Amino acid sequence: MNTSDTAVPIVLAGARGHGRWHLDNIRRLQDKGIVRLAGVCELTPLTPAELPEGLGEPEQSADFGALLETTGARVAVVCTPIPTHTDLALTAAAKGVHLLLEKPPAPSWAEFRRMADGVARAGVACQIGFQSLGSHAVPAIRRLIEDDAIGEVSGVGGAGAWARAQAYYRRAPWAGRRRLNGVDVIDGALTNPLAHAVATALALAGATRSEDVARIETELAHANAIESDDTSCVRVSTADGRRVVVAATLCAEDPDDPYVVVHGSRGRITYWYKQDRVLLQRAGHGPEEFDHGSTDLLENLVEHLTDGTPLLVPPAATESFMRVVEAIRTAPDPVQLPERAWRLLPDEDRRVVPGVDGLVAAAADTLSLYSELGASWAFPTAHPKEVSP
């Protein structure tokens, strides 16, 4: 049988920006005979130069629902602005089309529930695009924890010290916004570019469901001239007494790869999730490093459809992350950092917060918030929120 007869037809909604990564990934899987790019949904059609060589000539349309029908798509990859995720997911679900939905899955808890419940009612599969949770390092770390390699786990820290030029916030009308035209966006450091750190830390703490979250504290600030946060931290107290602290900035002096660290009574496990690399440090042993592979989430979704392989990141696995998004959404607006707290690097067209790299690392290391570490510009932007089931 020709592989084109068995390849799963796919429609990609949102093929520019991060969508280009999905185009390349679809091309990779198409070369393996696993999928076939049947359609591209963009307001302005892609030019031939924007399509990776070898993808053919997929049908293009700005009408997502019509495109799903005319192409006979079985899977839709949704990589569009955050506020559009729920409606597009439900459009696909209503047509029996399965989903890979980019993170964050929704800008609010209500929109997330509308999406997740609607997808479940329709009986279609939905994978949320937290690629870090497709890493083989995640189950390996869980096994280390279960085997008591680092003793009793007290908490998990996450650190993300990244840099974004000021042009990053001009890439789209919704960039760096909390709301746009009365609609929630919540495009902040913790909820979008460094959302993987939050979701991965919660997963390694064994706190992925809504009921696993007891309380959330936030400190949200921005150095850039934006609405949303670019320098922020969050502490989640879990139902079983663990603390999860994630500190993030897009104003780092020396940007570095983000990581998550699991704190135990006899050691720690550090996971650089973009590298699939793990460092185990424990009493009585020398440091041990492990490199892991990763399962592509689109490939996992196709395997789920063809042979019943369990989904790696179904909506239920992101409930606690969405509780964090909701806490950030309902918090007072982020604090504008005073001019003395940041400086402009003209050659890179970006603002940096001196000392923030060390603060980010210290927050993950001590499970403390910025204000508890003595940052003069940091204070809670909301009272701790108790999370209702």
UniProtKB/TrEMBL annotation:
Residues covered by the Gfo/Idh/MocA-like oxidoreductase N-terminal domain: 10-130
Domain of life of the source: Bacteria
Keyword annotations: Oxidoreductase
InterPro entries: Gfo/Idh/MocA-like_OxRdtase_N (IPR000683), Gfo/Idh/MocA_oxidrdct_glycsds (IPR050463), GFO_IDH_MocA-like_dom (IPR055170), NAD(P)-bd_dom_sf (IPR036291)
One Gene Ontology molecular-function label: oxidoreductase activity
Domain GFO/IDH/MocA-like oxidoreductase: 140-269
Full protein name: Oxidoreductase
